[in-house]
Amino acid sequence: xxxxxxxxxxxxxxxxxxxxxxxxxxxxxxxxxxxxxxxxxxxxxxxxxxxxxxxxxxxxxxxxxxxxxxxxxxxxxxxxxxxxxxxxxxxxxxxxxxxxxxxxxxxxxxxxxxxxxxxxxxxxxxxxxxxxxxxxxxxxxxxxxxxxxxxxxxxxxxxxxxxxxxxxxxxxxxxxxxxxxxxxxxxxxxxxxxxxxxxxxxxxxxxxxxxxxxxxxxxxxxxxxxxxxxxxxxxxxxxxxxxxxxxxxxxxxxxxxxxxxxxxxxxxxxxxxxxxxxxxxxxxxxxxxxxxxxxxxxxxxxxxxxxxxxxxxxxxxxxxxxxxxxxxxxxxxxxxxxxxxxxxxxxxxxxxxxxxxxxxxxxxxxxxxxxxxxxxxxxxxxxxxxxxxxxxxxxxxxxxxxxxxxxxxxxxxxxxxxxxxxxxxxxxxx
Length: 430
Known about the structure:
By secondary structure, the chain is mainly α. The protein has a single domain (17-419), classed as MFS general substrate transporter like domains (Growth Hormone, Chain: A, Up-down Bundle), CATH 1.20.1250. The chain has helices spanning 21-39, 41-51, 56-59, 61-84, 86-102, 104-110, 113-140, 147-172, 187-221, 245-273, 282-286, 289-306, 312-331, 335-343, 345-349, 352-361, 368-378, 381-396, 399-402, 404-419; strands at residues 11-13, 17-19. Strands 1-2 form a two-stranded antiparallel sheet. Helix 10 crosses helix 18 (381-396). The model is unreliable at 1-7 (pLDDT under 50).
């Protein structure tokens, strides 16, 4: 009899890593998918801002609804991992993402901004579940000493998704904006216009739902590939990991990093449309978003090599310094220099998430899934920092001034890189 390689368990264990190259390929695909879908928010925000005549703070509620899912669903996702295992949980997450995509249909039919926010919340809940699985899983699929480099390489596929999806989305979604002044419409005419203009959004997400269904089926077929050993007990005890300084500070930095990255990405289109910057039209500005995420893509391939040779903490401190410098240049200049300095921050962002995650998670052992759940909760920074940045833009009347908040976030990350430049001790568990 020959073993079925699609269902037989991979060799290895959680302490020494699993030898499963085929599973690494699937995990890379998961990073590509949830990265790409998340980046579509940067295109949807100016679309909904126009259709529902929102200010910056209101428009960035899109990110609040999306990233709030991380605060609510991360720990439940970690509990599902402990009960169902990594691959089964990934399938559950993909199906939940598919459900969120399908909810765009009633949202468009009703032409209600609140229903779009709910659909985004459900979609993000699925992404949260997948991400809680993907980050520790890619660390386990290989030698522990190369986990930093491997996670950074996986994040490169995340960046590939964030580069491709906004470019296509800007053509499909922003390119359909009708030359109609929404302020001249009211009542039934306004509702009809909104329903018509959001139809293209619905079609986009229905296509994504179909693709997710296929990927979920493939991942489910691999559900028995790992001999997993998970910790047991009260899942809420995962939060006691925050008492571990290296982990607690790392979780805070994830909160700040995601918030800063999302805030900048969300404002790129509006920023580049300003006459003092590049003065572009909405679709043309949207086509520049991939340069931001593409910088992260390039940086992660470079980072995977650098991190295998240089202390991750030192690399983190260097790129955080670079982000602060680019923000200061962008905020204090005009024209091409201002616009491209902001876009270049994507290159600095490239290694931040995987490096902070792996630095914080060093030495967790069997509690890796719990740690991933707590860190994923910290991704809620994407729900908090962007609207605060939008509020600063509204009250100051300047997107340049609003960049001060992301700069402060990067300053804290700089400090963490210096703090965590040495290896962490192993966590002793009962």
